[in-house]
Each structure stands twice: as C-alpha cells, then as structure tokens.
C-alpha cells in the first residue's frame, strides 16, 4: 500500500514534538525532519487547526495540542485500563476503608472509569462515566501536574475555562500553577470541598511507559473525619496503588512518578 507523503510528514512532525522536552521552533522542525520551511509551516497550520499542535506566539515555538491528549485518553480507555486497575483499586479500598476511584483526562475534564465504594460509605458524585472539571479535582490536578507547562497553558488559555462548582477552586492559570507546583512538591494532589461540600480527596497520577499521566488514583473521605497526618497516609497508599497501575501499564520506573490529586 502506497504511503501518503503529506500524512507521513504530519505524523513525523507530531512524533518529533512528542520527543522534545520543550516546545520547538519551526526552523528546528524543518531542519531535523529535512522538510522545506514552507512545507513545515503548512503542516503546522493544518495540525493547529485540528488541535494537535498549539503555537506559542510569545515564544515563537510549537508544542503538542489538546487533541493529542484526547487521543492518549482514548487509547487508555481502549486498552482495558479498567481491567488493569480494578484489583489494585479494590485493595486500596480494603486497606483504607474509604471510597476510591480512577479517572482519566479528556480535554479539560476528568472522566471517572472506576469507582470502588467502601462498606458503609455513601455514594459520591464520582460515579463511572461522570465528567468533572479537571482543575477542581484532585485526580485532574495530579495528572495536570505531570503534563508539560506548555500543555497546561494551552488547555487553560481562556479565562472562561475556570468554572467553579461550589464557589471554590482556582480562578486563573497562575492560581492553578501554584496548586500543581504544590502537588509536585508533596507528591500528591488534593481538594477539599471543591467537588462536594464536606468531602475531600487526595490523588496520585499513574503513568504509562512514556511517562504520560494516563490516569489518577484518588481516595475520597469526609473532611471532618481525616486530619492532615491521616491525609498523608491515605495519599501514600494511593501512591502505592498508582505505582502498581503504572507498572501494569508498562511504566519503566513507576515509583518515580510524583503527582497526585483528588476528586
């Protein structure tokens, strides 16, 4: 079967951007892929229109766009993530006595794909299939904390992206960045009352073999029942579960990932 040159070139651009630690200049893309500059700009423009690439005008550079992450989320859903993660999530609930769930990113939202309910604990909003704004949830913050800064900036370029549920949560990109930096520093992300009043969550991201945050493991609990020390213990258990999910996803060094969240 014949190769379509334009399609091969577009895929080469995406593959190149995916291997870079930072956004790349068009000149570098052209040089590294041995493409004419005019062809490079045409390819980038097409990929931008489709959401696979974003142009960072201030830096005059290009980075992967939201559509790439949506594809990655679709891949995670289609590779039986639920089957891989259900047993570790069930063990987490048995060990903590609290509700736990697994979520994936989809654009600026998280979608819950597993909910494991502890005996005697009330049902939560985070049922399977529910979507919530990622910046309000511990799960979303855990995954966002492991994404390149350029990707987070692209996701939240519009101030209108910062919707609130209970009049709580970050209202700007700078406020969100502060929360993500805190998640990276502590090794887990959290939220308290931003999704459901009187309930809090802690979460840690699970990564795939490329280091991409494919999902997040979260534990949710009544805020009044759990102090700061116990929250850290719950986060540590969530981290161990996320490491096991990462291992099952093929991550080379699951224990090295360091983000968490709740929601």
TrEMBL record:
InterPro entries membership: GAF-like_dom_sf (IPR029016), HTH_MetabolicPath_Reg (IPR050707), Tscrpt_reg_IclR_C (IPR014757), Tscrpt_reg_IclR_N (IPR005471), WH-like_DNA-bd_sf (IPR036388), WH_DNA-bd_sf (IPR036390)
Source taxonomy: Bacteria, Bacillati, Actinomycetota, Actinomycetes, Streptosporangiales
SMART domains xrefs: HTH_ICLR (SM00346)
Keywords: DNA-binding, Transcription, Transcription regulation
Positions of the IclR-ED domain: 67-251
Species this protein is from: Trebonia kvetii
Residue span(s) of domain HTH iclR-type: 4-66
GO term, biological process aspect, one: negative regulation of DNA-templated transcription
PROSITE patterns: HTH_ICLR, ICLR_ED
Protein known as: IclR family transcriptional regulator
GO MF entries: DNA binding; DNA-binding transcription factor activity
Keyword Transcription: yes
Gene3D superfamilies: 3.30.450.40, Winged helix-like DNA-binding domain superfamily/Winged helix DNA-binding domain
């Amino acid at each position: 079967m014949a190769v379509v040159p334009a399609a091969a070139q577009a895929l080469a651009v995406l593959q190149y951007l995916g291997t870079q630690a930072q956004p790349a200049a068009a000149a570098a893309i052209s040089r590294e892929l041995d493409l004419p500059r005019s062809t490079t700009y045409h390819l980038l423009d097409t990929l931008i229109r489709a959401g696979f690439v974003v142009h960072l005008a201030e830096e005059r550079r290009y980075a992967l766009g939201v559509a790439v992450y949506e594809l990655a989320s679709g891949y995670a859903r289609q590779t039986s993530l639920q089957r891989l993660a259900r047993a570790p999530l069930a063990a987490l609930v048995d060990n903590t006595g609290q509700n736990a769930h697994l979520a994936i990113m989809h654009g600026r939202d998280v979608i819950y794909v597993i909910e494991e309910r502890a005996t005697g604990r009330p049902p939560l909003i985070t049922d399977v299939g529910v979507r919530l704004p990622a910046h309000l949830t511990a799960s979303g913050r855990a995954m966002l904390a492991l994404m390149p800064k350029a990707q987070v900036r692209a996701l939240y370029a519009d101030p209108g992206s910062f919707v609130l549920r209970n009049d709580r949560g970050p209202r700007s990109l700078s406020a969100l960045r502060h929360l993500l930096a805190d998640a990276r520093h502590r090794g887990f992300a959290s939220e308290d009352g931003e999704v459901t009043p009187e309930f809090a969550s802690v979460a840690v991201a699970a990564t795939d073999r490329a280091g991409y945050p494919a999902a997040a493991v979260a534990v949710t609990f009544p805020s009044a029942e759990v102090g700061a020390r116990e929250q850290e213990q719950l986060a540590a258990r969530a981290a161990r579960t996320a490491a096991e999910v990462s291992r099952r996803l093929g991550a080379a060094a699951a224990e090295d990932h360091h983000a968490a969240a709740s929601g």
